[in-house]
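Researcher: Next entry in the queue.
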Amino acid sequence: MFRISNTVVGALNILSLLLGVAAVASSAYIHIRGGSDCQKVLQVPLLVGGIFVVLVSTLGIVGSLYRVNTALYAYLFVTFALIVGLAFFTVFTLFVTNRKVGQQVSGKGYGEYRVADFSHWLQRYVVNNKNWDEVKSCLMDAHVCQNLAINGGRNNDFLIFKHLTTTQAGCCKPPAYCGFIMKNGTFWEVPKEGPAVNNSDCSTWNNREDKLCYDCNSCKGGVLANIRNQWRRLTVFNACVLLVVTAIYALGCYAIKNNRFDSQCNHPKTPFP
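Model: Structure for this entry, 273 residues:
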């Protein structure tokens, strides 16, 4: 007779097994059909993560539903390692995203960011030349700089920005302190007297769609701000997952006890005469 803990552990692992298979299939689809550079970055993580989930889920299913304690011990060992890893990663994300940054541009509804405002780890990981080329490719593939402004005024005689994300604010327009004149959502005119301040971002800006401010420090700051915001949300998600995995670990421990008890009942020791 199946115990509740065995059934719950088995059901959860069947679900995770299906998710793992979906991840492997997604990686295979990207490999066969191809895709953008941004999509290809996900190919290997999806494959490795999917295979890992499939293997661990199989251990959980065999151990809980088929009463194989050896598999269940291996499953619990991996689960415990996952609990430790999630706890470490949650603390780490809080540590690298603990700075409150971003200067609100008055009346514009968006903030501008500087690379120096973020943790050194984020700067080294994201802003280095190799990773930044991949980030730029993803930004262009995602068309983040399209349809940023709408006509405003009674006669539609001027443009106003829609609500901009941190990435759009940093990458799709020159910084406000440059004093450029907006002609449309992505075309800006340098004043006759030149930029209002002598800053490398002002000279880096280019009206070409494949240039814009993708190489500006403001773009890097905007991307870092977006990563920080996403990681803050990920921290909450990680905390919820940590609770769920801990509960699964506890259920797995009960499942081992159930397996031992059922094994003793099915194979009772013969008493001495």
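Model: Residues 49 and 264 are 37 Å apart (CA to CA).
Researcher: Noted, moving on.
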